[in-house]
Amino acid sequence: MGRAIPMGYVAEPARQVPIAYDVDVAVVGGGLSGMFAAIAAGRQGVRTLVLDRFGSLGGNLGPAMIVGGSIAGEAPVTLPGGLQGIPKEVNDEMEALRSETGHKYADIPNIISHLAAQKALAAGVEILVPVWVGDPIIEAQRVTGLFVEGKSGRVAVKAKVVIDASADADVCRRAGVPVITDMPPDPTMAPLIRPEYLRPEHTPWNDTAIFYLLANVEFDRYEAFCASEVTLSAEDRAWHEEREQFPFARQQFEDAMIPLLRRAWERGEYYFQKTVDPHVHINTPNFWMWPSENGLVGSRINMGGAIRRDDMQQHARLETAIRMHVFETAQFFRRYVPGFEQAYLLLVAPYFGARGGPHIDGEYTLTPQDVYTGRKFDDVLYRNTHAGQPHRGGEPSGFDTPYRSLLPKGLDGLLVTGRASAYIRRGHDPGATRARPALMQLGEAAGVAAALAVQDGVEPRDLDVKKLQQHLLRQGFYLGEPARLAALGVTPA
Ligand SMILES: Cc1cc2nc3c(=O)[nH]c(=O)nc-3n(C[C@H](O)[C@H](O)[C@H](O)COP(=O)(O)OP(=O)(O)OC[C@H]3O[C@@H](n4cnc5c(N)ncnc54)[C@H](O)[C@@H]3O)c2cc1C
Fold it and tell me: Is 67 near ligand 1, meaning CB less than 6 Å away?
């Protein structure tokens, strides 16, 4: 697992591991997709356990705090039928809770984590946090459980079906099923993928961001400063243009910031761009700011390049670098930028995910061409669209997400949901497939599929997909026009 170079080996002594749980469905990762898988399976009446290495559920939307506005905000452009099912229920309740206070941005993660726990418990789901899920238990070519590390030591969880919702295909990689980590540059992907991502040194092209919160900011003064007329000197302009050549540099700040950034750079106090690992760059501090009341301001630092989610040593370097950069950014703002003189760093998210990473080469792996041409599959779970995504185009009526993209090759008892499901991308693209609304619905679909497989006593790959589709239609999922549903042999809800 991973790319760490072994310094040698030790033999792990065989031992008896106590079985702590014996459930129908175990969901590894209670993140954006996994939380919906767990709630959906629980509501189907099967014994369900959800496990996460963080103390709260929600993943990218929970502890990672990667939110901006409504979680369903993108749904109209990424899901032709809009957000449906349990994700819609959670989103509506979240909006209702938010409207009680009128808070902005920073309140979403805690609301999501709370609603996830509340709905999971109400559905009879057991929650096991914080624990690290290790190797799967494999017997006769099927996954029958997991080894889990926690404060009690190593325990075993037995499960009839395991759902890998770890985002990085952790269970699948350890199980040895085919997983795609590197994508060679493929010019045929050009309509969907930004050309700068198709570079040989970025075969695992990926990007991420870490969220942080500053307190005690006078945001109106900052806004007035940014809006002020600035005439940049020729030296400032040249200095900045030189930095625009930095890999993946994207301008996200006002001209007024340039002389300040230059001064801090030349004094050796703050470097707003950095190469932090071979081909990995903090490309531009994300000077997008989400002001809240009481002087709170949320923001993110972006990092992009050859980020490998399966290399814990690289991850350690990157995580250390980005966290240090957050602190340095906060110092820069306090020392240089009007409105931040009294500001301090209140919080840095405990977790940062990534937009790309390893994913299964599944029973069917969605390609950018499928996405671009609006391909249809008989095992459609919902229709997705790429057309509304900026700079990407694609068939306006969308494309089908097939059930087979949740099925790893060659091993039973295992389903995948979320970012590790089977679709080809390079980092950011194709956006619609890994966008939140789609992956939340994919979570619900995976949870229902696992429960149906248990109840029918079949392997997930032998599931009666019509039964699953019929359930999803009742949940409001959009699988296509009435004529298409008739052709599929399913009845509209
Ligand atoms: C910086 C950033 C910005 C984004 N912006 C947007 C956006 O604006 N709009 C949009 O639609 N999408 C956005 N996305 C994409 C979207 O958030 C992700 O695709 C989505 O969160 C992936 O969902 P997931 O459930 O697969 O993973 P996650 O939400 O990351 O959940 C994975 C969970 O698994 C747990 N886990 C992993 N491994 C283990 C283990 N071994 N043991 C125990 N627990 C484990 C983690 O703790 C986590 O809770 C963004 C993503 C990132 C990284």
Answer: no
